[in-house]
Amino acid sequence: MGKFRLLFLFIILSFSSVIKAQVSSVTVSGLVTNTGKAALPYTSVILKSSKDNAFVSGTITNEEGRYSLTEVKPGNYQIEVSISGYDTYSQPLFVGSLSEFLDIPPVELGQHLNDKETKIEEIMLTSDKKNEVSNQLDKKTYSVADNISQAGGSVLQSMQNLPGITVQDGKVQLRGNDRVTVLIDGKQTALTGFGSQTGLDNIPSSAIDKIEIINNPSSKYDANGNAGIINIIMKKNKQNGWNGKAGLTLGLGSLWERKQNLLTIRPQYKTTPKINPSISLNYRKNKINAFLQADNLYTETLNKNEYVRRIYDDGTVINSQLKRNRNTNFLTTKAGIDWNINSQNTLTISGLYGSEKIKDRGDQPFFNGDFSQRLRLWQFLEDELKTTVMATASYQHKFKEAGHLLNIGFNYTFHREDEKYFYDNFLPSSAGTDAFKLLSDEQVYDFNIDYVKPLKYGRIEAGIKLRNRNIPTNMNFIPGTNSVIDANAGGWANYKELIPAVYGNYVFENKKWEAELGLRMEYVKIQYDVNPNHPTYSSNGYNYTQPFPNLRLAYKLNDHNKFSVFYNRRVDRPNEVDIRIFPKYDDAEIIKVGNPGLRPQFANSIELGHKYNWDSGYLYSSVYHRFSNGTITRISSIVPGSNLIYAVFQNAGRSYNSGIEAIWNQKISPVYSFNINGNVYRNQINAFTVENLYPQPNTFSAEKQTAVSGNIKFNNTFKFSKGINAQLTAVYLAPDIIPQGKVKGRFSMNLGVKKSIQNGKGEVFLNATDLFNTLVMKKQIQGSGFRYTSDDYYETQVIRLGYSYKF
């Protein structure tokens, strides 16, 4: 508890500190006319500092009397508009930091009238370059290239160093909550799941430019994901001519056996290879910009190595080990073309192809309490192929005013899941072979229109979105002798989803105050048709029409301080796999099942943020509180007369998540800088009672659970001479509650070094994750009639060597 108290004290002290906001470059445009409303071309527009009257930026109007000023830092200025034969006017200009663009009201110049004054009211300009924590305090942006200690791995591995993110059972959590929506380039795709998060451990980080963490999304985002949004931005270059980047990463994992196998099973994977070639190509000339990004990630991994001890109320004890040796090959290819039709219209057409091939060779022996008798040996081969094809067309119209935009987009996604399992089931007196095949074809049509209009004091955003989604699935069970498989639970099911939505968002800013107010209205209709011969479940569905408001109010105390308060209402719609009626047998005696009776989980959250920037760093702090109704979770129970455990998704009632987050980024010298980020939060799940229907009705009740948990991450960055950079990262995750139990604390340390070569065009890196092999997932579960402990010694220690070259 000593480390945990120090963590808590550090974040409290950080939150009490004084904070300052950082700004960067901006763009502003406007129109100059005479008093007769005629445009004045070739008029001089100059921006000067209000402190010393020094020149900052200048331009002249075009033939239509329009002008644009770029690369201006937010602050206080004087703007001067002049042309021969007309009076010169100078007015105060305030530069803000919210909207990307600003449309200045038309300026009218009087001819030879020195006594006439034209007022130009305060103008807000916005930053198009942000530091890690945005000026709105609603988003954190991190470059994958800066994450040296996790370079060459998957996107999921890259995220483990980022503030507020933890990874548990292969799922990303934000501030202790796994209800996270993952986007790619601002869109939901089948690569990461629509409204969920899948496949992150197989997407190579070499394909990624940046990762955005959005804790308080505005109304322009889909309302799904109460914990927030993670937006993965893929690489895309726009330099003139031919250019690109090629790279190759090689790695080894499972360097030694962390815990010995139980008897009679096949060996664990050791010295597992990782191979990741990648290439990025771009060609830009005149009105055409063409791009291609291709990555292939091949890995062999000890994906799971879990030791479980189950104790039942009747005294029965069962010991088991679930080991999975996994081979994965994930190919991602994205290509497209930007056609700049003219200065105001652009058409982009792109396509994405993803192929994920997984082969799991698993062993699961079961022993009695003293390991004197093997009760069962469950060996399996999982052969799975996931194929994703996505086509996107987007059109952008730029109005004459800078930042005044109309975007129209269409996206089609096809995703096939072809999964086959083959099992050998060895019992003391018999042996049998089981199998099943799952085929699922997902098709999604998305259409959206988005409109942005800069205003005198901010901007307005509005849009509509329509989604139609269809997922037919078919499961064929083939049971063998003395099988645990429920052959009657197979058949077909069809998931249909229709979601039209409309949103509006208003942003306001002056010298002291900022405000953002948005509202999203969604209609959702879910229809889930089920094989009528299913022994437990029948066709089900739901629909709702709900508002999802968001609010941000900020006060700039002075040039060094900014406070923001947020409110958000969001929803977690059950994913198709959450309601999928087919039992999943990747564990022979702890069987996972969906629930078509699952309903959406609605959540409300509030947050207070505070930020301070200085020349060599910044400090960000926030306090937050979230409460959810209809909390979605898995509930494990047993059927009388059987030792099999069934984990079924349920709506468990009300839950709460409250905490404090702090990020301190400091440059100590040209050689050394660090980033410390920490989270302390309290999770609570109220008492609840649910009924699991599968495989037969069974009521489960749980008392209220509460726990205080958190994490702290210490990133150290070194910039040596001769282009050598290094990063050392330490991560501590405190104990936390999970449904029906808790997970113990864990610690890891990662190290990476990279060097620039070949006159800056080439780069080599070497890194190692979990240096001391300390990252072990340990859980305790308390069910009705049983309890169990679980220690998972899966592969966490990996060494990688990589090379890349820019051309």
Entry keywords:
3 helices, 22-stranded antiparallel beta barrel, mainly beta, 807 residues, disordered N terminus, 4-stranded antiparallel sheet, 3% helix
Report on this structure.
The structure is a single chain. With 807 residues, the protein is mainly beta. It is 3% helix and 61% strand. The chain contains three helices and 44 strands. The strands form seven sheets. The protein has a 22-stranded antiparallel barrel. The model is unreliable at 1-23 and 113-130 (pLDDT under 50).
Per-chain topology:
Blueprint: H1 2-15, E1 27-34, E2 44-49, E3 55-60, E4 66-70, E5 76-82, E6 89-94, E7 107-109, E8 139-143, H2 155-159, E9 165-168, E10 171-174, E11 180-184, E12 208-214, E13 228-234, E14 241-253, E15 272-285, E16 288-312, E17 317-340, E18 345-367, E19 374-398, E20 405-427, E21 430-455, E22 458-478, E23 491-509, E24 513-530, E25 540-558, E26 561-572, H3 576-579, E27 590-593, E28 601-614, E29 617-629, E30 632-638, E31 645-651, E32 655-667, E33 672-685, E34 688-692, E35 698-702, E36 705-719, E37 724-733, E38 736-738, E39 741-743, E40 746-757, E41 762-769, E42 777-783, E43 786-792, E44 798-806
Parallel strand pairs: 1-7, 11-13, 27-31
Antiparallel strand pairs: 1-4, 2-3, 2-5, 5-6, 8-12, 9-10, 12-13, 14-15, 14-44, 15-16, 16-17, 16-43, 17-18, 18-19, 19-20, 20-21, 21-22, 22-23, 23-24, 24-25, 25-26, 26-28, 28-29, 29-32, 30-31, 32-33, 33-36, 34-35, 36-37, 37-40, 38-39, 39-42, 40-41, 41-44, 42-43
